[in-house]
Sequence to fold (187 residues):
Amino acid sequence: MTTDTRETIMAVARKMVQTRGYNGLSFRELAKEVGIKSASIHYHFPTKGDLGSALARRYTEDGLAYLSGLRADSDDPQRWIKGYTEIFRMALLNDNRMCLCGIMAAEYDDLPPEVRVEVDAFTDVNVQWLSEVLSTCRPELGADQSQQQALAIYAAVEGAQLVARGRGDLGVFDATIEAYRVAGLLP
Fold:
């Protein structure tokens, strides 16, 4: 099996999870969409938990690279936050998908332990990045306050995405994010 097959499996599985959730991920359907036998998927990912944790880990790594790039490309905290909310918006623009780790978190009780660890890592990366941004935007905040506000921002943006997806209306996401700005939740 080639690395290309593994990457194709991950790409198709990511789309499946972002549209149907972790519980909607089926090796049989995945094999059919990729055009291989189910046994070939098991070659790369012995269990659904192995695949789920690999997806969440990659999603976290890609997200961290994106977030790091936002701060490297600009000194403007407003652009950082706009870029942050924009990545959640882009998932909606891409076939009304959800944040992969956000949709997995909604099924947290059903996730194998190895997937939970990776979903938690995604949350931690987001909260840490937002906390660092807040320390620049709102230097008067203490470390604990920055962490609490960062978690509130993360939860609010994930929630805005969920509601917009449920309504099938990107305008709901945009209006909610703007309302967060006006209310002072977002810097």
